[in-house]
Amino acid sequence: MGYAMSWLAVRGRLPEQVLADLDASLTGRRAPFGDLRLGCCTLPGGWQLVAAMRAEHRWVAPESLAALSASAELVACVVEEHVMVSCAEGWRGGERLWRVLHDAQQAPDHLQSEGDLPSPYARIAAEQRQLQASAQARGVDELFEVPLKLAQALVGFKHDEGGPGAEGLWQELSDGPLPPAVPADKKPWWKRW
Predict the structure, then answer these.
(1) How many CA atoms lie within 13 A of 68 on its CB side?
(2) pLDDT, tens digit (0-9, with 9 covering 90-100), for 2-34
(3) Most CB atoms within 10 A, among 31, 40, 86, 131?
């Protein structure tokens, strides 16, 4: 069983602003990474990390990323280990600056990149291509790691490794605003007990 998830990291906005822009709210529950369907945490370097255990969640749709990055820096990542697709992209000022995609369904050596790529990209891509060439006989997809390692180099988080965000407790999120709490002395009309 593998991960299917989306995450984004925002720097330059308050955590409350990020959640409001995503139409998400804190539930008050805390749990380890992976135990929550939706969660958030703060990473070193001022990054606010929000994750959904679903590939291509609405939070990483281009419209959402454009709006959220209008006045902030943003890195988004989609991981779908079941079909070996990974993607990372960077946004600022409401525009996508770069994108790196690996889709093993297109070809085992598929690696698409566009835009003004961050400096760690060239080194990471070269290292993973070298590993891919040596791992070919074993059938290991090393290029899947390129977008994920690039995002990690920028924000310090990778879903399947320890380190910031993967250790400790995350805050659970609700996908939308939480309904207002009903005072204990105010029962619905139909409850007689």
Answers:
(1) 33
(2) 889 999 999 999 999 999 999 999 999 999 888
(3) 86
